Description:
Order of helices and strands: HEHEHHEHEHHEEHEHEHEHHEH
Shape: globular
Radius of gyration: 25 Å
Helix content: 40-55%
CATH topology of the largest domain: Rossmann fold
Amino acid sequence: MRTARLFALLLLTAMLAAIRLPAAPAVRVVSQTVGADELLLAIAAPDQIAALSHLAQDPMFSAVAEEAKRYPRLDRGDAETVLRYQPTLVLAANYSRIELVEQVRRAGVRVLVFENHNSLEDAYANLLLLARELGPEAMGRAERIIADGRRRVTALEEKLRGVPPVRVISPSVYGVIPGAETTFQDICDHAGAVNLAATLGHLRGHAAPPSEQMLTWPVDKVVVAGTARETALAPFLSLPPYKSMAAVRAHRVALIEPHMISTVTHHRVDAYERLARELHPELFR
């Protein structure tokens, strides 16, 4: 009797083992913004990436332009184009077009909207939020990126401890200048710099510069974005009020890569380190 029961139990176990549970549906992600591109490429498996944003391959805006060339790119910003890639998840931001987000949702596709972009901790939270959608391997990659970023920021803080900050501005040809509560302010806070547009100009966000007042600011260096110093500075040599500022006339420039000035992801750490090197080269020799 006991032998029969044991045989039945073994048979049942073998039958259960032979039953194939339906596989979880494959994750196919379409990214609609550059920030989401950077998060996705950092932690997703290649077969999880269906398409990236239209700016993904542009080094002026993207920190991952070269890597992004391996994947399809959205050539239009409408829902039909997004859905053409048969995504199971679409990544958007709180500045994405509301009608696009709603159209994709009405098509039955999940949309993950990243809401916060003000700080490095926001970037880390967004990385973890995406990782939860992609699976345990992605979570492991996200945790390693965050740990490495925190280590690098701590090391930079130690290097800059006690060093007098450099007074800077970041001019723009678009009639605005970044003050407090901007990505540029966050970069300055971590790179041993004082953003005079915030401290003396009392500007918040990207605001029109106080042209006459700016001429009295004690600017040590002008932070410009580009691939070559003279080329990046050139527009401001003839643009008021910058052309009248001593730092501009003397070509006192700190150069960072174009995408760094607006990055909203963990790539901010690269911007912290790059600007710190530009402003305090003696610490990195």
